[in-house]
Amino acid sequence: MRYKLFFSLVLSSTLLFSCNISGILDSSSQKSDFSEELYSDNILLSVEITGGIAGIYNRLVIEKNGIASFEDRARRSGKWKSQLSMAELADLDSMMSENDFFDLSEEYIDPQVADAFLYSIYYKSDTDSNLVNTDNFAAPDNLKNIIAELNKLVEKVKNNGLDFTLELSKTSFQIGDSVKFKFVFQNISSGELTLRFFDGQIFDFSVYAADSTPENKKLIWNWAADKAFTAALWQMNLQPGEVQQFEVTW
């Protein structure tokens, strides 16, 4: 049987990471896998950076409310989020407009270049949208300007939040086996982070059947189901580079 595992920090705004523990992501492909939900009304910008000699797979998604989510799939290090201000969203829109993003063609790829990074950029304004794929070598100057600014934005989100990692003692098992989960989070920002909690619960794990859907979740196990936690509000301060880790057994 296959399962889906979810774990989260139980903050005032819960951060969520999901992982299908029966499979391993193949990060070698340079083809974009933009899914239909990325074209929803909530999405402002989506950037995928794939390929290269090391086989990276990074994705940045920015919602219209300013929530920016970054994911490094090649390292399977989870996701982390940052909140962009209205001024930053306005700067992003101005940058796209000034560099004529909506007038760009669908693809700018140099077939003579090997092991290049492939950028798949989707952006939607109130009136228009466009999806552009490029290796940056064949890109016109205005698209190179856009890529340079988006790389800065990626680094900002990456370095302004929490890095999550989930380590499993095994990725396949028989009924009756025990599986150990290690949940690690690190402050990868350049300053102190304050995490605020509603009660004594810091994290949670849930395991669902693999055929679960958002409308029909088939819960197999939940770590916190039989736990009691203090009711006091409190906060955790993380210094730059500081790591916290927790282990549980299913």
Question: What's the arrangement of secondary structure elements?
Answer:
Blueprint: E1 3-9, E2 15-20, E3 43-51, E4 56-63, E5 67-72, E6 79-83, H1 86-98, E7 107-108, E8 117-124, E9 129-134, H2 141-158, E10 162-168, E11 180-187, E12 193-197, E13 203-209, E14 219-222, E15 234-238, E16 243-249
Mean pLDDT: 80
General shape: globular
Q: Which strand-content bin applies to the residues?
A: 35-45%
Series of H and E elements: EEEEEEHEEEHEEEEEEE
Separation of termini? 15 Å
Q: Write out the strand line-up for the largest beta sheet, numbering strands in chain order.
A: 6-5-4-3-8-9-7
Could you explain how this protein is built, in words?
There is one protein chain. 12% of the residues lie in helices and 40% in strands. The chain is mostly beta strands. The longest helix is centred in the middle third of the chain and has 18 residues, at 141-158. It is globular. Residues 12-33 have low confidence and may be disordered.
